[in-house]
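Protein record
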Amino acid sequence: MGSFINGGVLLLLLTLVTLATISASPATALPEKPAGAGGQINSNSVLVALLDSHYTELAELVEKALLLHTLEDAVGAHNVTIFAPRNEALERDLDPEFKRFLLEPGNLKSLQTLILFHVVPARIASHSWPSSRHRTLANDHLHLSTDKGSVKKVDLAAVVHPDAVVRPDGVIHGIERLLVPRSVQEDFNRRRSLAAISAVLPTGAPEVDPRTHRLKKPASPAPAGSPPALPIYDAMAPGPAIAPAPAPGPGSGKHHFDGHSQVKDFIQTLLLYGGYNEMADILVNLTSLATEMGRLVSEGYVLTVLAPNDEAMGRLTAEQLSEPGAPEQIMYYHLIPEYQTEESMYNAVRRFGRIRYDTLRIPHKVVAREADGSVKFGQAEGSAYLFDPDIYTDGRISVQGIDNVLFPPDEEPPASARLPRKPLTQQPKPRRGKLMEVACQMLGAFGQSSRFTTCQ
């Protein structure tokens, strides 16, 4: 009897505990979903469609702005509408300086604000286009409207591809241009103003010319297209053993000539002309001469290029090219800081016989002379004929094809080693003047020349 009662009490206690656990399980075993937490993004999401769509420039900016997680949360919480600028608007039509500003690591916040300004946390279909303001994920507003021609607009940008991508959790509309919020535009203007101010020296501060290492004097303004004031050797960048030529920048040059385009054009002409691929390859890939030549031409200097053909370049040995800076030094010797055509050089050598042209390989010069109805450069076995005249002439750069690679002449040996020594016992015979020779001839006629030692 006692054991039955004890068993009944134990069974009752177990039942009560079980009921209490069941009643408490909904609150403890299933925690509430935190507010704002996004759901699982599936393959049919509008965000996945954006990354796989033809709006590649916008998708690339989204990844660079590190906004994938933020957009996943937004898509998981509610439907979204994305206004996607076409690729041309971000690739060609966008100001390069503004694009460079957006991609700088220090301006990540501005890039994120710009991207989120194109996303509205609501579904806006083209068939129910409202005329109202909508808040974006950047906590700013976009004004949607329709003009008289039934063209849908987002602020000042027209919708060129309505409903370009439609998904259950959102829609993408293609627009013609990038939408820039006021805050990002102000950040860009502020950064550009600071950069301009920091580049200005205080009034009265001494300024040293990095080329001549002398104090700069205020120069009178020169008219556009006037020749440069500095010699070309002072304007050249440091040699290859010191530093490479500086890359072109937005503030370099006098902006009278687009030297970089002209150098690119003449190298392209070499390739199309045929037979000068090695020369073009050295200029573009093995040296920084193309950049330096473009900068010099932009500053108003002129150049004549003596271009060896492929057959001549093929005769160069590995030993001649193995030393550091050897390709640069070879090419420097083929650059003349003058503008010469085949006609001008031929007329000069016909008139003066031999012409010594300065080269950019200081202090060596190249000798030109007339030979076989053409111009011949160099001396002896290292000479080269001008046989492809005026390959490229644009008033700034002249390219003349030659059939050999030119090298500066070797240093001449000293005079003591070049002239043979005469024996010390041999006395030099005194040289008679013209008057003495006539007198000796007259004395010889009378048989009296033997009486003068100077006539013997």
